[in-house]
Amino acid sequence: GAGVSQSPRYKVAKRGQDVALRCDPISGHVSLFWYQQALGQGPEFLTYFQNEAQLDKSGLPSDRFFAERPEGSVSTLKIQRTQQEDSAVYLCASSAQDRGGTQPQHFGDGTRLSIL
Amino acid sequence: SQQGEEDPQALSIQEGENATMNCSYKTSINNLQWYRQNSGRGLVHLILIRSNEREKHSGRLRVTLDTSKKSSSLLITASRAADTASYFCATDNQAGTALIFGKGTTLSVSS
Hints:
Helix content of chain A is 0%, strand content 47%. Chain A is mainly beta.
């Protein structure tokens, strides 16, 4: 497709379960970002990939959060042993060039994660 | 942590009126961007202004940047009901590896 695609759109999990969220960026985009957005707040940065290299993971809140982009295209954000405070919308964004934080980013519609 | 703050938090206007939103940030920047988010959707890029620019226009949008005051404003002229959304400013971290967003302004335009 022409835009950033995220799946699933909605995910409900019980506390303690592991979840995996997928992001298909725009084809050929070098930079890929993950953000977490709590209700009524702005997105908060989680991690950044330049192609397959994870160059910045300073925003990941704990070691339960793990992201990968093994072939430099599709990315997966995994959350292990989920907790209620992980409930949020997880947004993926991509941009055409490196140093994507300095360029317009294209966002997917996000995955709304609810932890029961 | 959030880089900046948008002001006001919420704004309600009538169609045809102008809407002005302000953003303040804390650290030096390479550029500042504005995004729109409709309910339940992802963010859409509106405009990017570089640190050496003072004003930029795009259609009905006008953005200003004052780096000495670490502030920016977004003006939407002749607003429409379709402009109803949340608006966020965002600045890059110095490494260019992340966008740092404010908390947003929720704009409601009634017909």
